[in-house]
Structures are given as structure tokens and as C-alpha cells.
Amino acid sequence: MMKHEFPNLRVILHPLIQHKLTQMRDETTNTERFRRFVREVGQMLAYEVTRDLPTELVEVRTPIATFRSPMIAGKQQCLVSILRAGNGMLDGMLELLPAAKVGHIGLYRDPSTLEPVEYYFKVPSDIAERMVIVCDPMLATGNSAVAAINRLKDHGVTSIKLVCLLAAPEGVRAMLERHPDVTVTVAALDEKLNDHGYIVPGLGDAGDRIFGTR
Ligand code: URA
Fold first, then answer.
1. Is the pLDDT reported for residue 114 higher than 80?
2. Between 143-154 and 169-178, two packed helices, what is the crossing angle to 10 degrees?
3. Which among 22, 55, 113, 158 is annotated as catalytic?
4. What is the ipTM of this complex?
5. Active-site pick, 109, 151, 173, 178
6. How far is the CA of 142 from the centre of ligand 1 (A)?
7. What percent of the chain has a predicted confidence (pLDDT) above 70?
8. In the chain, N or C terminus with fewer CB closer than 10 Å?
9. How many Å apart are CA 169 and CA 199, to the nearest integer?
10. Which tens digits make up the pLDDT trace of 19-59?
């Protein structure tokens, strides 16, 4: 785990994750490889973000003996993808959480104000009873993630975790100020935002690189 000033942030310094992330940062990595890395890192981050899920002992009979063994207990999960880049992480995360329901929130950044504008919102009707994992690859200003989590809380959700590939300190700070109850799990904490709201050094526009629209 990396040392930093944010009590709400977990940076996962795993060699497999860092190795893939470095290749994602490389501007010569093509769409096919980039998409595969997003899925794979998404899967590994899902493993980390579910580390503290509660378990309960259930009775299981092995071919040798009967004993009590742990199974996941408590709230069921819902993944919420912030469109469109969040969808790149979804497949990998669903491989580890195949029973999770999935919501989508469509937000785009107004290029002049960098403020989020919502164009789509569809979540499961029982979302308030679920533990929600929000996927947003790039936590830049934090405006989109804050807006998405505002909407989820309006729907009665009380248990939320945010998973990102990269974060800028500005975004983590915005989350801490507006949603201090939400833990942010990331593969790296980068240096800063540039004047256009891009993470530096970052990896560019995650949506464009996943979908080849650059
Ligand atoms: N969104 C991106 O896709 N990349 C950034 O660097 C910032 C926001």
C-alpha cells in the first residue's frame, strides 16, 4: 500500500497491476491491448475492493468430512458503470462477481466548465439494499463520480465503494469532501490535473482508448 495524505484512498501496488498499467499508459498501446488491460486490471481491482466483504460459516460436506466453512454474507452487490469508460472495467469485474446486478449512469463532461451533465440513469430497483461498487476509470476533477454518487444516495444507497484505474489528488480530495464515507480504490495516484482536466501523466482519454475513438 502506498503512503499518501488521503484517509479515503487505497492504492493497490501489486506488480501485476502496475505492469499492465504501465503498458496502458504507453501511447503506442493499441485499442485491442488497452481494452484487454482495462478488463484485467478491473478484475484485479474487484478482487481488492471485495476484500472486506463479510462472510458467514456454512456447513459443507467434503468427500472426507463435514465442517463449517466461510461464504460471502450480507448485502448483495451491484456494479454501477459511469458511461462510457466504466464499461471497460465491467466485464472483468463481473467475472469475479457474476451474480452482481449492474446499473449505468451516463455523464459527460462539459468541455468548458468540466461539470458533469447527466444523460442516462438506469439502476436495479432494489439498489438501496445492495452494496454498490461504482466503476469510473479516471478520477480526475471528481465531478462525475461525486454527481453519480449523489444520485445513488438519492436512491437510498448507503453502502458505496468507488473503483478507478487512476486518480488525481484533486479528485480524491473532492470525494473526501463530498462523500467521506466512500472508499476509493485505485491502481495509481498520479501527480495532478492539466488545464484541460486530464490526469498527468495519466493515460489519455480512457473512453477513446477503450473504444478506439481517438
Ligand atoms: N478522463 C479521462 O479519460 N482521462 C483523463 O485524464 C481525465 C478524465
1. no
2. 20
3. 113
4. 0.96
5. 109
6. 10
7. 100
8. N
9. 9
10. 999 999 999 999 999 999 999 999 999 999 999 999 999 99
Say yes or no: CB of residue 91 within 6 Å of ligand 1.
Answer: no
- Active-site annotation holds for 113: yes
Nearest CA to ligand 1 atom 7: 198
Domain 9-54+72-207 = CATH 3.40.50.2020? yes
Say if CB 181 and CB 152 are below 8 A apart: no
Residue 145 annotated in ligand binding: no
Distance 135 CA to ligand 1 centre (A): 14
CA distances from 77 to 15, 38, 57, 106, 213 (A): 27, 21, 19, 20, 31
Q: Are 139 and 172 spatial neighbours (Cβ–Cβ below 8 Å)?
A: yes
Residue spans of the domains in the chain: they are 9-54+72-207
Take residue 157 and report the three cell numbers written for it.
444507497
Strand-pairing partners, residue 46, are none
Mean pLDDT along residues 170-187: 97
The upper half-sphere exposure of residue 101, i.e. CA atoms within 13 Å in the direction of its Cβ, equals 15
- For the chain, the average pLDDT equals 95
Measured distance CA(73)–CA(109) in Å, rounded: 37
User: In a mutational test of the pocket of ligand 1, which residue from 27, 81, 84, 198 has the highest number of ligand atoms less than 8 Å from its CB?
Assistant: 198
